[in-house]
Write a structure and sequence with these properties.
This protein is an alpha+beta fold and about 500 residues long. Among the domains are: about 170 residues, no CATH class; about 100 residues, L,D-transpeptidase catalytic domain-like. The chain has seven helices and 21 strands. A seven-stranded mixed sheet has the order 12-18-17-20-13-14-15. A six-stranded mixed sheet has the order 5-4-3-11-6-21, with no helix packed on it. α4 packs antiparallel against α5. The radius of gyration is 38 Å and the shape is elongated.
């Protein structure tokens, strides 16, 4: 039951002490403001409020095997390598005079099974795998025994289809003036995997997510396992925190409504108390003007009633003060909880975005031109800093060091490719190829001998190192390296 106080609907407990004294003012009210219901005071957004646990991403224990494609302009061939060596080979047709194919180091940026050129009159480009946003791509096309494209790398239909099936975003692609191939390589400067524990959640996210809602993991994880568990935890955390937002906002709106009603009821009660006190004061003034004892008795009776009314109104007003204080405190707490829930959801969304990038292979690029080291993972920049290069005026060459296989808990097998940059394109025969390989091994080692990697950079690489990772060293600077790309290094 509720009673009305000059247009305000007051809960029964509030009106009980006011109604007997101010009954005349409690009639004929028509406005309705909701009664303040009792509600749970548990933490809004707690994980246990949402029933069954959110399914988590399946955690992979090992990284997928990496692949590398190398195009030789002199030979007009493409070769694909994996951890076991060359797995695919095909003829290609690259750019002709006036529309040359740039040499350098690339990765696949985009893949489309059916694609039409937006440069050359919607020319069909089936099995397109993009290398630059300025128009260089691998795709199916006419492959004569000479260069015939406008810069892209055309492949025969059967091979283009096979490469499409085994290709992936981020796969390394090298375009070389002449034939080169990766060879096993070791050097003390190459990083080793560092085991670690699970990443910590931000404190505001921990408030919203119960520990038993998150996937369990061993205390020590390999870098790839740690990245996979981070992704699984991020998926779960985002789902839980997003579910927490709606009830937290609803509770905030409800308690804000109740606090506003309490404030308005308190203001109405203050007016009634003031009127009761004014009525008592008027009766007391009337008493001062009484001339006879007979006239004094009825006034004293009215003063007693007026005094009782003031006391009852004041008592009710004090109760309303306490109710308003509690309602305001609850509204303030609920608003804070809603802000925390929204912040936790935003942080969880940001973390999920980073966690998705963090399961991609990491790439370190050292540029002699800029004297800087750059690290990207999932086309996201995570490090940039000065690196010391001894004898910086002397060329380093261009080399790609690739982590291809785990051979122990903290050991990775590496390969190296040294990319010629002198423009001397020729068809390699066996003796020349052996000379190139020997020189490349020596050159690749000498380049690393002259580079001093900072301790924080070595640790960063070790914590994110698994098959597919790579280190690029070059005399050149960054090419078309923008948001959404791995490193692009153009060597001519």
């Amino acid at each position: 039951m509720t009673v009305c106080l000059r247009g305000w609907r007051i809960p029964r407990a509030w009106g009980a002490s006011i109604a007997p004294v101010l009954s005349a003012t409690l009639l004929g009210c028509s406005a309705t403001i909701g009664v303040f219901p009792a509600h749970a005071t548990g933490k809004p957004g707690a994980a246990h409020q949402f029933g069954n646990k959110t399914p988590i991403t399946k955690v992979r224990s090992s990284a997928p095997a990496p692949r590398m494609a190398i195009i030789s302009l002199a030979d007009q061939h493409i070769e694909v390598f994996d951890a076991d060596g060359r797995s695919q080979r095909s003829r290609v047709s690259t750019g002709m005079s006036g529309h040359s194919t740039p040499t350098g180091i690339f990765s696949i940026l985009q893949r489309r099974r059916y694609h039409e050129s937006n440069i050359y009159s919607n020319a069909p480009m089936p099995y397109m795998q993009r290398l630059t946003w300025s128009g260089i791509a691998l795709h199916q096309g006419y492959v004569p025994n000479y260069r015939a494209s406008h810069g892209c790398i055309r492949m025969p239909g059967g091979f283009a289809s096979r490469l499409w099936k085994i290709g992936y975003i981020g796969m390394r692609v090298i375009v070389s003036p002449r034939r080169v191939r990766p060879t096993d390589f070791a050097h003390p400067s190459l990083p080793a995997p560092i085991s670690s524990g699970l990443p910590q959640l931000a404190s505001v996210v921990r408030v919203a997510v119960a520990a038993d809602d998150l996937p369990a993991a061993p205390e020590s994880l390999s870098p790839y396992e740690a990245a996979q568990h981070r992704l699984a935890r991020a998926v779960t955390t985002k789902a839980v925190t997003e579910k927490a937002v709606k009830p937290a906002l609803e509770l905030a709106r409800q308690t804000s409504r109740e606090a506003r009603q309490a404030t308005e009821a308190l203001a109405a009660s203050a007016r009634i108390l003031a009127e009761a006190e004014e009525h008592l004061e008027l009766e007391q003034l009337a008493m001062a003007t009484v001339q006879t004892e007979d006239a004094e008795e009825p006034i004293q009776t009215r003063i007693r009633f007026a005094t009782a009314g003031v006391e009852a109104a004041r008592a009710s007003h004090e109760k309303l003060k306490e109710l308003e204080r509690k309602a305001s405190a609850e509204a303030f707490a609920a608003a804070g909880a809603a802000r925390d829930a929204q912040m936790a959801a935003e942080l969880a969304s940001d973390e999920l975005s980073l966690a998705r990038k963090a399961v991609s292979p990491v790439t370190l690029f050292v540029s002699r031109k800029t004297g800087q080291a750059y690290v990207r993972q999932g086309a996201h920049e995570i490090y940039e800093g000065v690196v010391t290069i001894n004898d910086p005026e002397r060329p380093l060459g261009t080399h790609v060091y690739s982590a291809v296989e785990e051979i122990g808990p903290s050991e990775i097998r590496w390969t190296a490719v040294s990319v010629p940059t002198n423009g001397g394109e020729r068809r390699s025969h066996r003796r020349a190829e052996r000379t190139d390989i020997s020189h490349a091994q020596s050159s690749a080692s000498e380049a690393l001998d002259r580079i001093e990697f900072p301790a924080d950079l070595r640790r960063l690489m070790g914590e994110r190192l698994w098959p597919g990772a790579s280190i690029i060293v070059s005399d050149f600077g960054l090419g078309e390296t923008n948001d959404g790309t791995d490193f692009v290094i153009i060597t001519h």
